Amino acid sequence: MAMHRGAPSHNLWTGLRQVLTHGTITVLAVAIAFSLPGVANYILNEWWPEVQNNANLLLATEVGLASVLALLFNLAKIAWDHRQRVLTARLASLVYARNSGAGWWSRRRERALVRQLPAARDAFVLTLTGYDTFVADDSLLRGVIEKAYEIRVMLVNPVGRALRERADSLPPEITVLTLHTEIEAVIAYLSRLRKFGKKVNLKFYDDEPFWKLIVLGDYVWVQHCHSGFAVKQQPEFVFALQHHEPRHGLFVPFYMVFLNQWNDARHPEYDFDTNELVYRDASGTETGRVMLGVPINGAAAPLPSTNGVTAPPRSSGTRRPDEESRAVLLRRPVSERAAV
């Protein structure tokens, strides 16, 4: 399937490839045109007289011709079916899809798509812990996200019910403590981006995750957060914005999913300077703060309700100097991590 791009980019290699393609097609067309008289003369004057006088050769010719016609009709049907699929994918604005477990070679098209992405001013990420997107060495989108000026991130609440339910559905080696460690690493990474002058906002949601969304300019990466499976084990789809018909395709619906989640007043925002969760009402007025932290045994810590109840006041204790540059959720590491 040819890639549809919201903003096509042209380079030297693309131009050379188009010239070579057109040149090859032209040479083949000329060769076929010049060979047709000779082929017709051979069939009419040499081949057909022999076929008329040889029953076995006539039978073989009929079988061969029938086989060629069947093959051509099958190829025509396959081409027609693929054309319908291409039209369907184009209507959905699907520009890339891959199954889980795709290797380095099979993801070359995704890498090519990432390289052709223009610098995006905004990057929006809705995910579970964000480790595979921001921290993992094999992340394809981390470099693109780092180039954005404004980065909005939504992660699952590390002390909420949804994270515990998610951990319970995953293999035994993945625990709540594992997911906490990943979230801590992501917060530390986002804190470093803020030092480089990036506008970074982080919120936490309390519902069990359903989608992993990464919006970069006119493209959105989508994966389903299936219960019991790591997100990286799920198929990945990339949708593009159709500028001439924005209502077509699935870019806008998934983009609105992120915006609706981001604007939901139930989700607290993280304060990087104080390591606190900031709760606001529907009008944006701050209603309370609570320190972001979990007990050492990984047990759930209750958070204040946002239904008109003010959260406990912020802690007045002193903070160590190293806490100014990183978020401290835990006091002990774990060796394993989940693929999210």
Strand order of the largest sheet: 1-7-6-5-2-3-4
The tally of domains stands at: 2
Average of the residue pLDDT scores = 78
So what's the CATH class of the largest domain? Answer: Alpha Beta
The CATH superfamily title of the largest domain:
Endonuclease Chain A
> In terms of structural class, how would the helical and strand content be classed?
alpha+beta
What is the helix tally?
8
Percent strand? 15-25%
List segments where confidence is low: pLDDT < 50 over at least 5 consecutive residues.
1-10, 295-328, 330-340
CATH fold node name of the largest domain: Endonuclease, Chain A
Distance between the termini: 28 Å
Helix content: 40-55%
Instruction: State Rg.
Output: 29 Å
Question: What do you see in this structure?
Answer:
The chain is of the alpha+beta class. The chain has 2 domains: 80 residues; 229 residues, Endonuclease Chain A (Endonuclease, Chain A), CATH 3.30.870.10. Helices cover 40% and strands 16% of the residues. The chain has 8 helices and 10 strands. The strands form 2 sheets. The chain has a 7-stranded mixed sheet, with helices on both faces. Strands 8-9-10 form a 3-stranded antiparallel sheet, with no helix packed on it. The longest helix is centred in the N-terminal third of the chain and has 41 residues. The radius of gyration is 29 Å and the shape is elongated.
Short description:
The chain has 340 residues and is α+β, with helices and mostly antiparallel strands.
